[in-house]
Specification:
With 347 residues, the protein is of the alpha/beta class. The strands form three sheets. The protein has an eight-stranded parallel barrel with strand order 1-2-3-4-5-8-9-12, surrounded by seven helices. The chain has a two-stranded antiparallel ribbon with strand order 6-7. It has a two-stranded antiparallel sheet with strand order 10-11. The protein starts with 11 loop residues before the first helix and ends with a helix. The mean pLDDT is 95. It is built from ten helices and twelve strands. Strand 1, helix 3 and strand 2 form a beta-alpha-beta unit. It has a single domain, classed as Alpha-Beta Barrel (TIM Barrel), CATH 3.20.20. The radius of gyration is 19 Å and the shape is globular. Helix 3 packs parallel to helix 4 and helix 3 runs parallel beside helix 10. It comes from Candidatus Magasanikbacteria bacterium GW2011_GWA2_40_10. This is Phospho-2-dehydro-3-deoxyheptonate aldolase. Belongs to the class-I DAHP synthase family.
């Protein structure tokens, strides 16, 4: 094999032992998972809102954001199920920083062993506050150190056609959002759900195992190929494909960022708000698609916008909650959006 061994990574038990969960937090995660499942299956009429920074870094700013989100949650929890994005892994179209789990300091060389402990502590701290958290399953072989912390998991647009990720989704014990691929294809997105809801026989940790299938696997629409895919026609297409395949608990979360927030071919983080408003308007008088849409995903941090990492000038970096990957809504915009969204559901 064409690689050099750098160091041995601590096993999952050692990582978990370093930053364990309290019994109270474990029980809360089980309740959060069940509530999310109930929304996906239609037993709970709230909307799921998966909200937080594009990438969860640095930890101090992430925890400050979590405190604000926790306080806001008290005002909207009867209408919205808030799940915080604590995304520690970042897929890249070509190359770039792949998140704090791989490189906890973007100015230093990658150090996965350090990154695992760094991100585990950050995630545990957020969960212990009382917030459910979400992450994208990019590197599935790292899952043992984090899986029990998560109340919702995403399979990203670059991974959703990959068989390993589909099988992983069929094995995890919480709801999984399968994004449509970067092409924007709804049919392929639905195919990934069918695969995730199905049982599979695979090798896992030296054993032949059978996954049980995930009845709460659902579609995340994020646009693709420079085109949005959240319109009424797109939602009707989703419904048709799901009916055709007999999808259990047919459900959609609309990612109001990525290609769904393009303006003149470029992502505009401010457009996330108007996209959500358009979706609510589109489904208002269409019962089938209204029942299909279970919530939204958006990118938000303490400060609006984003910044570039200048490797030659680390002092120039704002570490107080300004994204170093995709541009995000600022806190004030986020707070107003979520309060308005909860109010619209009340009306």
């Amino acid at each position: 094999m064409n690689f050099n061994i750098r160091k041995k990574i601590p096993d999952g038990d050692k990582i978990i032992k370093a930053y364990p969960l309290s019994d109270t937090a474990r029980e809360k995660i089980l309740r959060d998972r069940q509530e999310i499942n109930d929304i996906i299956s239609g037993k709970d009429n709230r909307l799921i809102v998966i909200v937080g920074p594009c990438s969860a870094w640095p930890s101090e700013a992430v925890l400050e954001y979590a405190k604000k989100l926790l306080a806001l949650n008290e005002k909207v929890k009867d209408k919205l199920k808030i799940v915080m994005r604590v995304y520690i892994q970042k897929p890249r179209t070509t190359k770039g920083w792949t998140g704090p789990v791989n490189q906890p300091d973007p100015y230093l060389p990658a150090d996965i062993a350090q990154g695992i402990f760094y991100t585990r502590k950050m995630m545990v701290d957020v969960v212990e506050m009382g917030l459910p958290i979400a992450d994208e399953a990019l590197f599935t072989h790292n899952a043992s150190a984090f899986q029990e912390l998560l109340s919702w998991v995403a399979i990203g647009a670059r991974s959703t056609e990959d068989q390993e990720h589909r099988i992983f989704a069929s094995a995890v014990d919480c709801a999984v959002g399968m994004k449509n691929p970067t092409s924007g294809s709804i049919e392929i997105g639905v195919n990934s759900i069918v695969a995730a809801q199905h049982q599979h026989v695979v090798i896992f940790d030296g054993y032949e195992v059978e996954t049980m299938g995930n009845p709460y696997a659902h579609l995340v629409l994020r646009g693709g190929a420079g085109t949005p895919n959240y319109s009424a026609n797109h939602l009707e297409e989703v419904f048709t494909h799901m009916q055709k395949h007999g999808v259990t608990n047919p459900a959609v979360i609309v990612d109001i960022s990525h290609d769904n927030s393009l303006v003149d071919g470029k992502k505009d983080h401010r457009r996330q708000i108007s996209v959500a408003e358009e979706v609510l308007e589109n489904i208002k008088n269409h019962q089938e698609t209204k029942n299909l849409v279970k919530g939204f995903m958006l990118e938000s941090f303490l400060k609006e916008g984003s910044q570039k990492v200048d490797v030659n000038n680390p002092e120039s970096l704002d570490r107080s909650g300004l994204s170093i990957t995709d541009a995000c809504l600022g806190w004030e915009q986020t707070e107003k959006f979520l309060l308005d969204l909860a109010n619209k559901i009340t009306q």
